[in-house]
Design brief:
Order of helices and strands: HEEHHE
Oligomer: single chain
Largest sheet: 3 strands, mixed
Structural class: alpha+beta
Number of helices: 3
Number of domains: 1
CATH architecture: 2-Layer Sandwich
Strand content: 15-25%
Distance between the termini: 17 Å
CATH superfamily: K homology (KH) domain
Length: 75
């Protein structure tokens, strides 16, 4: 899932070299953290959080194929 979030985020931002995605696994599932440049934060979140919701929906759909729980946090 890390690679999926990274590809999506790099396509959205002006500074793709500053995109950092980390993946942490615990008992409940996997947590993917997306770090972008402060100037690109609005592009990743979108108006009323629409882009962020879309990223989470795509990751949820991809993770359901593997019967896994994945949570995406934008930091």
């Amino acid at each position: 899932m890390k690679e999926l979030v990274e590809v999506i985020a790099k396509a959205l931002v002006d500074h793709p070299d500053e995109v950092v995605v980390t993946e942490k696994t615990d008992g409940k599932g996997t947590k993917v953290e997306l770090h972008v440049a402060p100037s690109d934060m609005g592009k990743v979140i979108g108006k009323q959080g629409r882009i962020a919701k879309a990223i989470r929906a795509v990751v949820k759909a991809a993770s359901s194929k593997e019967d896994a729980y994945v949570d995406v946090d934008i930091i």
